[in-house]
Amino acid sequence: MRPRRIDVVFIDAVDRHADYEPGSPFRLVLSHEIIPLIEERYGAAPGRRALMGLSRSAAGALDTCVNAGVTFDACALIAPALPSGQLA
Question: What is the pLDDT of residue 76?
Fold first, then answer.
């Protein structure tokens, strides 16, 4: 059996409220620049992606998983600090 490799990338927010707001410019940068760069640099297989958000970043993770136009196999939200109006 071939060993699996997992690449994990942590990104600090400049402004954790603005960056993780649904529809933020950060979502576009993540989906159009950062993800392709990571996959190219580290040889990640397309279609083998997961995204996780913790606390406030859960809003950005959920928004990205649903609206970024990038396919994620998993979207994990840990202790999401989401107002009920954002869950729709």
Answer: 92
Place of tokens 């995204």: 51
pLDDT category, 1, cuts 50, 70, 90?
A: low
Report d(CA 9, CA 22) in Å as an integer.
21
CA-to-CA distance for 29 and 37, rounded, in angstroms? Answer: 11
Per DSSP, the residues of 2-36 read PPP---------SSHHHHTSTT-HHHHHIIIIIHH
Give the number of other Cβ atoms within 10 Å of residue 64's Cβ.
25
19: nearest Cα among 75, 51, 50, 64: 64
Length of the chain measured in residues: 88
